[in-house]
Amino acid sequence: MGQPPRNPEAEHPLMPDDVPHGPKHGTNTGHGFATRMAHGGRPGVREHGFVNTPVHRGSTVLYPSCEARGALNARSLEQVMTYGTAGGPTHFALENMVAEIEGGTRALITGTGLAACTLPLMAYLSAGEHCLIPDSVYGPTRRVAEGMLKRFGIETSYYDPTIDAAGLQALLRPNTKVLYTESPGSHTFELQDIPALAEVAHAHGAKVLMDNTWGIHHFQPFTKGVDVSIQALTKYVGGHSDVLLGSVTVASEEDWVRVASAAREIGHYASPDDCWLALRGLRSMPMRLKHQYEAGLAVARWFEGRPEVLRVIHPALPSHPQHALFKRDFTGGCSLFGVVFQPRYDVKQINAVVDGLKLFGIGASWGGYESLALPTTQYITRTATDAGVLQGPTVRFHIGLEETADLIADLEAGLDGLPR
Ligand SMILES: *Cc1c(COP(=O)(O)O)cnc(C)c1O
Predict the structure, then answer these.
(1) Coil, strand or helix at 387
(2) Atom 7 of ligand 1, residue of closest alpha carbon
(3) Whole-prediction pTM
(4) Which residue of 250, 367, 390, 397 shows the fewest CB atoms closer than 10 Å?
(5) Stretch among 53-57, 117-121, 260-264 having the lowest mean pLDDT
(6) Ligand 1 atom closest to 232 (CA)
(7) pLDDT computed for residue 16 by the predictor
(8) Cβ count near 244 (within 10 Å)
(9) Residues 6+ apart with CB under 8 A from 182
């Protein structure tokens, strides 16, 4: 074993061919979403002609000289290889793709979706400050606000997700630094008027964070006032129920420095193997999502026609209370929605229907290729709005890639077993 090669022409981490030829590098301007997802984040000539970005695993990065070390370390928030935790080619390829999905400039990949929710809260809030979180927030995000944030001296209040600008104005305090949003809300799918709320928050000097996991590319956060967008890549990006990842995307350099510095301080990192799986998932995501969205709508409409059902909660259905916001702000959606059964049924009866389904798994998470049904009635926490948000036993459905007719037949057999 000799010395590591030191020829900067061959080994310098800034060699232009080392940089993934992602959407940011001008390969895809003006093309449609599926085309961009097929062509973005790929390595070009550097990888011996193979189509896909390989998995680059690594902790140590070798520098061509001591002087280069200092110069490169000073640029560690750029897409420059300085040490494993700063990311490598596989991470950067995925970052570029995710930024492209949401119309941001930079994205940071986190080990889970939840880590992507908590990272910007920690990046923007300090002891003595106040944060506003919608009452319909993803449960574990509430848990971190009630646990760690509280312990660090940050106060949170919960607000009605359907609040208007004046309502938000009344909740702002001098020390409110973050307006957290999630639209639609977890389990109950309320939509938020993000542009109106963002305007009020910005006038107050607060940052607007949004969990955009449901909307994916159908809600473009940075054209609607969001400063920091969060996604659980675990869902449709992974798409196969075999990977956990999250992303934090920003549009401004100032926000990038804030979020990326916090990530480095805390030691956030995602495995390049998982990033590679997410990149692979992205290639087919537009088509999976398109199919699943349409199949989900077909199943949701079928539920709406059933006498056992009180209400289907799907933002894309005209029956949704904030459907006008959906039409204004979204270009589509995904295949996750809620079904509220008639109050004449109890949770036990509805759980028995779910237990009897042949094609629907019972489990958390969503966005995979397989259908899921998850009773949610007892798992909904509300502290700021009416606890009776759901008027009957409720089940959250995720529609996968099975034949829609088979799914409906399975559901039909289940509902036919309920007393009229
Ligand atoms: C699943 C989910 C998350 C968390 O993602 P994980 O990768 O499971 O940690 C965050 N927000 C929303 C809205 C989710 O549905």
Answers:
(1) coil
(2) 113
(3) 0.93
(4) 390
(5) 53-57
(6) 5
(7) 43
(8) 21
(9) 134, 136, 137, 138, 141, 161, 192, 210, 211
> For 371-418, what is each residue's pLDDT tens digit?
999 999 888 889 998 867 789 999 999 999 999 999 999 999 999 999
Q: Is the CB of 85 under 6 A from ligand 1?
A: no
Calculate how far, in angstroms, residue 334's C-alpha sits from the geometric centre of ligand 1.
14
- Indicate which atom in ligand 1 lies nearest the CA of residue 244: 7
**In angstroms, rounded to a whole number, what is the distance separating the alpha carbons of residues 107 and 99?**
5
CB of 116 within 6 A of ligand 1: the answer is no
- The label of the residue with tokens 């080990």 reads 111
Going by the DSSP 8-state scheme, the letter that residue 54 receives in this structure is P
Helix, strand, coil fractions of the chain, as percent rounded to 5: 40, 15, 45
Measuring CA to CA, how many Å separate 232 from each of 56, 110, 156, 236?
22, 9, 22, 9
**Domains of the chain, start order:** 8-281 (3.40.640.10), 284-415 (3.90.1150.10)
247 lines ligand 1 (CB under 6 A): no
